Amino acid sequence: MVAQGYHTTNHTDSLSFKTRPGHTDKDTEVIGQTPNSDEESVATIGAKALLETFDEDRPNLPKSPGYRITVFSCVVISPPGTSIFGYANLYQLLEVFHDAIKAHRSLYQDGGILHRDIAASNIIMPPAEPTPGSPKGMLIDVDTARDVSRGPTPQGSMVGTSPSMAIGALEAYVLNNPRTYRHDLESFFYVFLFLAICPRDADGTKTEELPETSRLLEWRLDKRKQVRKTTDMGEKGFEAVLEEFSPEFEGLKELARTLRGILFPLKDGKIWTWTDTSPEGTNKLYDDMTEAFKDALVSIAVDEGPGYPTTSSIAEIKAWGFNPLAWVWPPKRQIF
């Protein structure tokens, strides 16, 4: 059994609590295999404290072969970060995606680690750093990551956050369909779509909820999730997804189309969801993904203000007696 929590604020280090049988911590393993130059982009282990070994502190408890020694440990990582939903403007958000994908590439190609759980909750924004070139986006929670030197993922092994899981990852029961780096890149794309569709509250706060009419809700509710996602990634289905973009993301629909074309090329008239595992194919897919976000950044001014009404402007408009956001977005529903 694993119990894990992750807490981030602007002022304190981030904590990851785990309760598990005696077991080497995966976060520590990953940092040990990641090149020093890229540690900041994944999450640097600052300290690890062994707090309690239940077997030693409870000597009077009867021994039982049915239970294993359980160790409670606390992992402190640095720097602290904030949720990706707290982005200040679209320029910052695109930088976060660009750098998080670079971090994933380093983790996979240099460290030999496949993350396997790319989700909105596992992409964070580090605090602003004065150092030029410091990463704008980081990956956390590598507890389900896999060391690729151990070989392919066993058939039927399915891990990840369901709404963000790739079509191929949801088909883990299929023969000769191991988990790949491309599945994680597909998950980045789904996180982008969630953010593009999730609305803002009346005070301008970005919600972590989809409108209750969103097609993407079926990715979580439909038992045949991979079939629904395949339909929505088709040409007609995807245009319907784009129609759900919030006004803030209207100008990024072309980026979404580009990312879809990169991840789902057509083969015999159908979208292709398999992976080119050759070194050339791997490099091309990573390059194409990061270049797509880089090209989108060029079209957005660095000093762009929030792409939504600010709290002060909303207060001014409300003084006239109506809610300025009431007509923009339909009702919403929790997705996580």
Which SSEs are present, and which pair or pack?
Blueprint: E1 3-7, E2 14-21, H1 26-33, H2 39-42, E3 44-53, H3 54-57, E4 70-78, E5 82-83, H4 90-110, E6 113-114, E7 123-125, E8 138-139, E9 146-147, H5 181-197, E10 209-211, H6 218-221, H7 225-233, H8 235-242, H9 253-263, E11 266-267, E12 270-271, H10 279-298, H11 311-318, E13 332-334
Antiparallel strand pairs: 1-2, 2-4, 3-4, 5-7, 6-9, 7-8, 10-13, 11-12
Walk me through what this model shows.
By secondary structure, the chain is an alpha+beta fold. It has a domain at 83-317: Transferase(Phosphotransferase) domain 1 (Transferase(Phosphotransferase), domain 1). 34% of the residues lie in helices and 16% in strands. The chain has eleven helices and 13 strands. It has helices spanning 26-33, 39-42, 54-57, 90-110, 181-197, 218-221, 225-233, 235-242, 253-263, 279-298, 311-318, and strands at residues 3-7, 14-21, 44-53, 70-78, 82-83, 113-114, 123-125, 138-139, 146-147, 209-211, 266-267, 270-271, 332-334. The strands form five sheets. It has a four-stranded antiparallel beta sheet with strand order 1-2-4-3. Strands 5-7-8 form a three-stranded antiparallel beta sheet. Strands 6-9 form a two-stranded antiparallel ribbon. Strand 1 (3-7) and strand 2 (14-21) form a beta hairpin. It is globular and about 65 Å long. The two termini are 21 Å apart.
